[in-house]
Amino acid sequence: MSENRILLIENPAQLRVKLDRLCIHRDGFDDAFILPNDIAVLVIHHPVVSLTAAVMQALTKAGAILLVTDERHLPTGM
After folding, report:
1. Is residue 21 within 8 Å of residue 59, measured between CB atoms?
2. What separation in angstroms does the CA of 55 have from each of 31, 51, 71, 74?
3. Which of 20, 41, 45, 69 lies in the 20 to 30 Å Cα band around 78?
4. Residues 5-57 pLDDT 10s
5. 3-class DSSP state for residue 76?
6. Does the predicted model carry a pTM greater than 0.85?
């Protein structure tokens, strides 16, 4: 059984799928990779985050929840 995580993105980032893994790219940092099956909830907590449709497809296939928050840190969409 995999360890499910709540992944919080709170800085500008670009998310994409690369080699069946979620790739998180931030300027000035090495890319981070995580398997979609290891994510329970992905929280987008910054207005300058972009993600591909492939990211949303991989997360939904893995049963993960995508949550978006507003400037008051409140959920606005799931």
Report:
1. no
2. 15, 6, 23, 22
3. 20
4. 999 999 999 999 999 999 999 999 999 999 999 999 999 999 999 999 999 99
5. strand
6. yes
Task: Please state, as a whole number, how many other Cβ atoms lie within 10 Å of the Cβ of residue 31.
Answer: 12
Query: Would strands 65-69 and 75-77 be described as parallel, antiparallel, or unpaired?
Result: antiparallel
Count CA within 13 A, CB hemisphere, residue 78: 7
Burial class of residue 38 (count of CB atoms within 10 Å of its CB; 0-12, 13-18, 19+): middle
Structural element, H or E, at residue 57 = helix 53-61
Sign of CA dihedral 3, 15, 78, 69: positive
CA R_g for the chain:
12
Phi, psi torsion values for 13, nearest 5 degrees: -160, 160
β-bridge partners, 37 = none
Among 76, 33, 35, 75, smallest CA distance to 59 is for 35
